[in-house]
Design goal:
By secondary structure, this protein is mainly beta. Helix content is about 10%, strand content about 45%. The chain has one domain: 6 Propeller (Neuraminidase). The strands form eight sheets. It has a four-stranded antiparallel β-sheet, with no helix packed on it. It has a four-stranded antiparallel β-sheet with strand order 2-3-4-5, with no helix packed on it. A four-stranded antiparallel β-sheet has the order 6-7-8-9.
């Protein structure tokens, strides 16, 4: 089922509009910057709106704001734009990272007027005193389509003809299909050798971009399988005006069937021993109708093989990985930052309204939250681990 496009773009649009933005919540033991207690927090900025990605270098926090289409440098409470994304309508800056040599990379993408079809997709690598390197991810997707042979939706031959036809209409696609051509770069991570890893939520893949802008595939993430439930069907049942509608009786033959959703990687980080950590926002609903199905995978960049570290996250939009392998997960719909040990044990690190991105540096966790409507309203907060 082609739920992925609807979910990813709805998620982005919802954040940009600040829908249901919850109040900012500080961690237990909060205090000022002089505090020593684990979990203390301090707000570094309240001038962000849709901070889809953040990166930390020393005392500087870099913020990719999808609402203003800028990459800014946050130092001592002041946000200074250092790069603009695209001025075209329906454009978006999403991911940002900084390398040890001071170079910065950020992702950009643009959709057509419908807001559903991506027409441009790039990774921009910038360094002071040098010309920008621009990798065209759209061309790579059109030429390669890494998940083009992966089967999604209902397995071919699944009975329930009425249900299959209904799904075709409800999802705006096909009940069974292979990976379509689509690219939506959402996050980037420095690989430490002048190259960059990109989490492409449209391509369902982790890509590598060389220092000269050449693109290759590191891994395609696993299909996300789920049993179809009444809640899942209800979540996509709408009338011609897009309002919720009852599920037709002859569609109930889909109940109990298995559906393969797209993995939709939302972030990539380099962890211990060079392993990549990847968060996924699987196609389909992330609200209670489908259950909390976001996951974190470990990916071997040499082989492309992956294994799931943990699952059960409500819209895992971003992760941060500490030097000891502990992973922090921003759960947009869960209203919290979760903590995952190297063995996959999950606990709540802190509750926080509409967390979009998270990063770890040294003894600190940095979280950025979505704002409400006009400029400002979101936050960048520093927590002691």
């Amino acid at each position: 089922m082609t739920f992925r496009k609807r979910l990813v773009l709805t998620c982005a649009a919802t954040v940009a509009l600040g829908v249901a933005a919850a109040p900012m919540a500080t961690a237990k033991g909060s205090g000022d910057a002089k505090g020593k207690k684990s979990g203390f927090s301090r707000t570094l900025s309240t001038e962000v709106l849709a901070p889809f990605g953040i990166a930390v270098d020393g005392n500087t926090v870099y913020v990719a704001d999808g609402a203003t289409n800028t990459v800014s440098k946050l130092v001592k409470g002041t946000l200074t734009p250092i790069a603009s994304g695209l001025s075209a309508p329906n454009s978006e800056v999403a991911g940002v990272d900084v390398a040890d040599d001071g170079s910065i990379a950020y992702t950009t993408s643009t959709t057509d007027e419908s807001g559903f079809v991506h027409i441009a997709s790039e990774l921009v690598i910038t360094k002071a005193g040098q010309a920008d390197v621009v990798a065209d991810l759209m061309v790579y997707e059109q030429q390669t389509n890494p998940d083009g042979d992966v089967q999604y939706g209902l397995p071919p031959g699944t009975d329930c003809a009425a249900g299959r036809a209904w799904l075709d209409i409800m999802t705006g696609g096909l009940a069974s299909y292979t990976g379509i051509q689509d690219t939506h770069p959402y996050a980037v991570a420095s690989l430490g050798n002048g190259s960059w890893a990109v989490a492409d939520a449209g391509a369902n893949a982790i890509l590598e971009v060389s220092p000269t802008g050449q693109v290759s595939t590191i891994a395609v993430l696993p299909v996300q399988t789920q049993t179809i439930t009444p809640g899942l069907l209800a979540s996509v049942s709408v009338d011609q005006e897009g309002n919720p509608a009852p599920v037709p009786d002859d569609v109930n033959c889909l109940l109990g069937k298995t559906c393969g959703f797209e993995p939709v990687p939302t972030d990539v980080e380099v962890g211990p021993k060079g392993m990549l950590s990847v968060s996924t926002l699987p196609g389909g609903p992330e609200d209670p109708s489908g259950g909390a199905r976001g996951s974190v995978y470990l990916v071997n960049p040499a082989t492309g093989s992956s294994s799931r570290l943990a699952t059960g996250f409500a819209a895992a939009t971003n992760i941060g990985v500490a030097g000891d392998g502990t992973t922090y997960v921003a759960e947009l719909f869960g209203g919290k930052i979760s903590k995952v040990t190297r063995n996959g044990a999950v606990s709540t690190f802190t509750e926080v309204g509409t967390p979009l991105s998270v990063e770890v540096r040294g003894g600190y966790v940095y979280a950025a939250t979505a704002g409400i409507f006009g400029p400002g309203g979101g936050s960048v907060v520093q927590y002691r681990r």
